Structure formats: C-alpha cells, structure tokens
Target: Hydrogenase maturation nickel metallochaperone HypA
Amino acid sequence: MCSSGGPMADLSMKKLKTKKYKCLDCGNEFKGLGRKVICPSCQSDNVELRE
Ligand SMILES: [Zn+2]
Model:
C-alpha cells in the first residue's frame, strides 16, 4: 500500500509551449503564448518572435 511512486510524473506533461518574443517598441523580452501576443510592459502588439 505504501509504495513510493512518482506522484509528480504528470508534471512534465503540463509544460506549456511558450515562445520568446521581443517588443519592438520598448525592447522588452518576454515569453508569450498563443497567437495574439502583447508586450506585458507597454501593452503593444508590435512584437517580434525570437528563436
Ligand atoms: Zn513593449
């Protein structure tokens, strides 16, 4: 009954696919998710996807 398993096994499956973006207005680099990404600093949508 008291076997030690890995209760955190499904934690890796919750990894979100975030991408790196850079705001072209204020130069802030951040991680975005989804199609419409806005800069968290200045709320601009003039952002560039970084690889
Ligand atoms: Zn910005």
The first strand starts at residue 19 and ends at 23. Strands lie at 19-23, 29-32, 47-50.
